[in-house]
Amino acid sequence: MPEKQHPLKASVNTANPEERYSGIGASRGIAIGDCYSFVKEQGNHEIEALNRKDIGEEIERFLSALHRSEKELKKIERVTTRKLGKGYSDIFNAQIMMLHDPVLIEAISNRIRTERKPAHIVIEEEFDKYLEMFRKSDDQAFQERADDIHDIKDRIIRNLHIRKLHSWIPEGVIVASHHLSPADVVLLSRCNIKGFITDTGGKTSHVSLICKSLNIPIVAGLGNLSQKVSTGMPMIIDGSTGTVVTNPEQATLEQFRTKQSEEKKHVDDASLTAELPATTKCGVRITFFANIDFKEELLALRSSGAEGVGLFRSENLFTDGTNVPKESEQYSCYREMADTIAPMPLDIRLFDIGGDKLIYSAVKELNPNLGWRGIRILMDMPEILDTQLRAIIRANTNGNIDILLPMIMSLEEIRHVRAMVDRIYAELIAETDLQIDKPGLGAMIEVPAAVELIEEITRCVDFISIGTNDLTQYTLAVDRNNVIVQDLFEKFHPAIIRQMHRIISAARSNHCRAIICGDMGSDPLALPFLLGCGLRRFSVVISEIADLKTEVSRYSITETEALARECLAIDTAAGIKACLERFQAAH
Asked: 0.85 exceeded by the pTM?
């Protein structure tokens, strides 16, 4: 179907200079077109106290706003199911459930009644309690979960004032907004949108995942760019690099049109090979799994060429910063995921909470990354660990679930959890008629202590998963979120390279499955080195799999083993990278 043109034609703007901006490329693809500034109407922020006679009416207005919000979300849910399938519509089911939360409704109603505050103020304050917990986190995934709560808050307040949902704009534009919700993206996508740019957000938000499924480019995390652009402004966005160009010159337009054509050909070629097995030039089989944050990502699993889930970050099941998901909620999620991809494997990492993520401690830690986090919290709070293990084991009716332990630094931690798994499995078998298999047990290798114990660990677990992001951070004593020392965060540091070889070699000699789930595993430059060390399993972002499969086919194991030996003898990161670049260029 030919693209419908909108009155503002993409053209070269000679009146204003070309400007370039950098953000986060959150859904790949290049869009060239005219900007449409999507500004959401601001709520009423009057805080005048209510008269006593108006309190009942204000509570009714609040309840009516909940009802209107539910009607909107059900409409959006139907559109989403039609466009993307049931998996993504569950995002809106979760929001609808929140509208029915009796604790939230009672809290807001009581505060309107006792404090005599207008409903919009109380709603704002109650929701902001949850929002602050997420936004304080240094973990991008948790910051982005705040977007869903923010959307519900804004929707209720807008419906409180009976303002119409803004969901129709000119066709064929690039939408610029400070913030977009999943509902905004689903509804606006009906207008043949070319792309999105947002001041907020990142790669793992629901908005970005939906854009990926709709094949719509998005650049997020642009600061305040939405305030600098205007409707009708010519624009180019590159969802792979995170580049935005406003008022592009003719030469820039031609450059990006060429890149756009090349990317389309690359995507078409990759889609032909994505579902084929990955093999090296000499015929050795390599397996690629997916790292996922949300169950909605499973919809793209098979078409991407993934052969299962190598890392499911279960902490994303938390809906706020304090309430642990119930066993029934966890069971339902794990069972649905395992059933969806069976017989492919599903590796569920236990709640990796604490540190720069969720904090249960009432004490503010001076250095949370070196504090109460990961397996330490789970062992100190057995009710959380017991509930999660029970839900996972109950869900393993297909026998395709394994359990991954975060932040392991001792054998005692592994033995403690294994004993719990054995006990809970025995109880479930005795209590029920469930036909369930005992999940395998794996350890995250992400601290130097685990590397020092790698021989013992690989004899104690069924598999290991190498988390190179934290391993690099802790080995080099470089906070990966600290911009001052960010240039020292170097995955090709000789110490990291040698650790990788040591870990993989120990796993192979002890017949323990090894998989890499950190960023190094998706780096094409690192790929031949890892193959040369003996790694045969990779878990990466879904969108990277097709390209990595193509890369694998360029190498033979013999030549990658020679490359690994060469890199291990080099004593600088610069030298190692130069060696890898020469090897890549020669192939």
From this structure: no
